[in-house]
Each structure stands twice: as C-alpha cells, then as structure tokens.
Amino acid sequence: MIDHFEKIVRGSPAIEITIQPGQHPFDQQGLNVYFPDKTRRLFDDGHYSESVFSAFKHLENRIKDQSGLQAKYGVVLIREAFSGNPPPISVKCPTSENYDRYRRNFISILEGIFGNIRNPGGHQEFDQTVDTCLRELSVIAYVHDCII
Predict the structure, then answer these.
(1) Alpha carbons 140 and 148: distance in angstroms, whole number
(2) How many other C-beta atoms can be found within 10 angstroms of the C-beta atom of residue 141?
(3) Theoretical Cys-Cys bridge with 118: which of 53, 56, 68, 130, CB 3.0 to 4.6 Å?
(4) DSSP 8-state code for residue 18
(5) d(Cα 143, Cα 31) in Å, to the nearest integer?
(6) Phi, psi values for residue 12, rounded to 5°
C-alpha cells in the first residue's frame, strides 16, 4: 500500500494553493482546529518552516500525552504509541480496511513525515514557500484527524 501511495504522490503535479482574498489560509483550509496559536503566528510572520516545526511539536506532544510515553521522541515514540494489542493510541480505520494493516501503514506514513518533513526543520532553519508550508500543515492535520 505504501508503494502505491508513494507512486501516486510522486506522480502528481505540484499543487498551487489558492489563497482567497480576505480569508486567512488557516481558516480557508480548516487548520485552526489542529494547531496552537503559535503555529499561526509564525505563519503570519512569514516563518513558514518554523510554523511547520511548531505544528510537529504539537503533534508529538499530543501523541506523548495520549500514549503516556513522555520520555520518548520521534520514531521510537511513534512505534510504541501505535503498536501493541491494543495499542496505546488507536487510529481511525475505514471499515473496508484491515485494521492491523492500516495501522502499520499509518505508522510508516508517520515515520516518513517525521523523517522527511519534521527533521530538516528541527535541525536547521531554511526558506520555505507559503504553498509548501500549507501542504505540510495539511499533512499534519490529516494525521491529527486520524488519531482517536
């Protein structure tokens, strides 16, 4: 499933996000419900990579709080929080899918976004476009939405 997902994503053209005049992108895309005010303030100040990193810290803290794994970080946290029978944290699974397979794939997606989106922003500052920022924030919002 991951290989299929990767082929779809890599084969898709870059999507330009259209920001409607008079409407904040967070409101337009429904991102406010997922992130702390700090994430939006960083975005508003043009600190896009820092905004994404703030959103990841918020996600990681949510996973720590829900799982009780306060001393864990990154991939180790992800694997322990979503593994086991039952796992400390469950994910929403479509009724048409096998839960264990879906959960394993969800863990793989989380590991990928923590490694490829969060880690670069956590180790250095870099310029990021508003479109890339909003796409990455949308991915993080998707993860929030999948966690029960």
Answers:
(1) 15
(2) 20
(3) 56
(4) P
(5) 12
(6) -85, 140
